[in-house]
Amino acid sequence: MTETVDVVLIGGGIMSATLGTLLHELQPDWKIVAYERLSEVAQESSNAWNNAGTGHAALCELNYTPQAADGSVDVAKAVAINEQFQLSRQLWSSLVDRGVLSEPDTFINPTPHMTFVRGEKNVSFLKARFEELSKQTLFADMEYSEDSRVINSWAPLLMQKRLKADQPFAATRVTGGTDVDFGSLTRQLFAHLSASGVQVQTNQEVRSLKRQADGTWLVGYRRALGRTPGEIKARFVFVGAGGWALKLLQRSGIPEIKGYGCFPIGGQWLMSSNPEIVARHHAKVYSKATVGAPPMSVPHLDTRVVDGKTSVLFGPFATFSPKFLKNGSNWDIVRQVRPTNLGSMLKVAVTNFDLIRYLVGELLKTHRRKVADLRELMPSAKDEDWTLLQAGQRAQVMHNGTLQFGTEVVASADGSIAGLLGASPGASTAVPIMLGLLERCFPEQYQGWKPALRELIPTLGEKLNDQPDLARTTMAKTAGALSLQG
């Protein structure tokens, strides 16, 4: 007889780990099973080397603050993204207090977030952005400077060998930014779940999802390196399988997935572990994107702390592969095609020539050319100090003829199955995304869960940006719990 469980989580990344943790805290009596097709969890998008590790709080990312034709800057999305990241910080700090997560510096470290731009137009934009953001409670600590001496004190590698006569430049800085190792965070969450009775099964690839007459889902799986089949019934299924989420949701047959497609974009980093470079750079510095480049390809020079070792990354450089995952299939891009999404994908192809041109240009870049791009931010960069590192694979969402760069939850009408599509800001906002999923898919239980959720996330339902005192108190408390002071 096929076993029936309460929840099946598909995919061993930060999304499944976060949802599983929340559900286990809320309903410890529920039986939860997680399946990961690789030999370990956190090997795809959540792996530290496959993402930027930026605690995305809109402190440095220009794409969250669009500028209108009249020069005004809209900061609404930046404020919303920051509010979301505060929820993630609160949950993580609560889990540290409860012993679910170990020493905070194994997954999060204080790292200033900076934006650096060149040219009169960009400087004007950054100044306008700063003036609007600095009025907001959550961005009150932002600093702005056009002084090379000040910027040099913030990030010396930006100024070394740079001539101010070439063109004007400016920078903003928020010292309260973070670098996050989402791989370590994911592994710790799954380790706790496993120790608490949740079945975390690796080397198991989910192959089918079939709705049963009783409302449950029959989940078919097999060993990733063999053909031994298995199946299990679940009252709720979450598909947090990165690029494979689209394929599995299509196989489920839910009408809500019709019209969706994915466009895969890969990435590479330049990495340096040279002690002299590492010692002179402590920040995540974002700059202006190339025309036609997707938001995930905004150039940035990042301090990274992975497994206790510090390095500096620059990139990402876009690559192309038909795979939806680094460990996917070359047929992924073809097998997604359905009559219901073909028109939408063709429209995306016709209306995104800038993106195609950008990708072709990226693919043609040599190592020397990539280091030349790095010199736009770090003029003193030398070819021999930098090596190439393959980053993660992203499956950008295509829907209704539009290429989207956010994340989107697709759920059945009855809430019995849901999956996550898309990329940025992704991992940083895993907590608010999963909170939204809980409210949407478990409406009957959600009201009863609220008291427990507020113990984990004290400001749940509040807007910190509108309450300066609460914001300061909350941010100071989470900084203390996560050892982010200084």
From TrEMBL:
One of the Pfam families matching this protein, by short name: Mqo
The keyword Ion transport appears for this protein: no
Broad EC category: oxidoreductase
Cofactor: FAD
Known EC number: 1.1.5.4
InterPro entries, A to Z: FAD/NAD-bd_sf (IPR036188), MQO (IPR006231)
Top-level taxonomic group: Bacteria
Protein name per the record: Probable malate:quinone oxidoreductase
Organism: Microbacterium soli
Gene: mqo
